[in-house]
What we know:
Cyt_B5-like_heme/steroid_sf, 5-stranded mixed beta sheet, rod-shaped, 6 helices, heme, alpha+beta, metal-binding, Flavocytochrome B2, Chain A, domain 1, 2 domains
Amino acid sequence: xxxxxxxxxxxxxxxxxxxxxxxxxxxxxxxxxxxxxxxxxxxxxxxxxxxxxxxxxxxxxxxxxxxxxxxxxxxxxxxxxxxxxxxxxxxxxxxxxxxxxxxxxxxxxxxxxxxxxxxxxxxxxxxxxxxxx
Length: 133
């Protein structure tokens, strides 16, 4: 029967980054290595440097033995949550529909140059037409 493990986000794992509380992520698995910091052959600093990210590459590059990999199981506390964190959406309230006249007045005040130009051209055309008669 499969064993259920607790899922943690990378943000949660990254918050455990002190000598008194240190979690390390290796290949999607999370280990609480706080009690192992003093015993780690590479020193506590090596483990503290890889908090907040998946340290699989660093772990593999160090060439850990099979016994080291077995020892890790003693510190296993859960797995990295594979679902991406979804940022909260902002909710916008649709403004109440304003009447046609309100929209027309708002646009006229915003684009005042267009009606003034139309009236000006109309006045010039009227004056020129009146002079021809």
